[in-house]
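Input/output pair, single chain:
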Amino acid sequence: MEYAIFKALLFAVALLDGVYLGVLAHGLGHAIMALILTRQSVIVKVGTLGEVVGLSMGRLTLKLGLKGFRYGSTSYDRQSESVSRQRLIILGGPLVTLFLTIAFGSSLARFDPWGWIWVALMGFFVANLRILTVSLWPIAYQAPDGSGEVWKSDMLDLLSLGKR
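Output:
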């Protein structure tokens, strides 16, 4: 157990970075499906307060902030799209997150347990597994920006579309 404290710090950093990058990848999964299936502009936002970076690339706009980095959203005009297109767009995020979770999880077998690379990969794996779990758990929660808006997980959003 050499360097246990440094490995614990590496795990924590990989976990936090993995959450931020995982939320971004999840949002991009939704956005790519929306860009493919619609002719609309799409905004992917990661973080709740204090936009640090704003990037526009054609119909895609990224707004990246550091506060509230566990949260992300993908915006487009949903009402003008069919229910089947909305379902595919909703599934885009969890599919990307599932792919990343499987990729990081299967990569763990290639490295020595508790080695430096293994610890970092485990942080990324746990981060993406957390994102996947939250997106597939049918819950609604208050938007963290204090706007009073209610956000739905991807599964709850998908289930509520089934009622129409």
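DSSP finds four helices and six strands in the chain. The longest helix spans residues 4-37.
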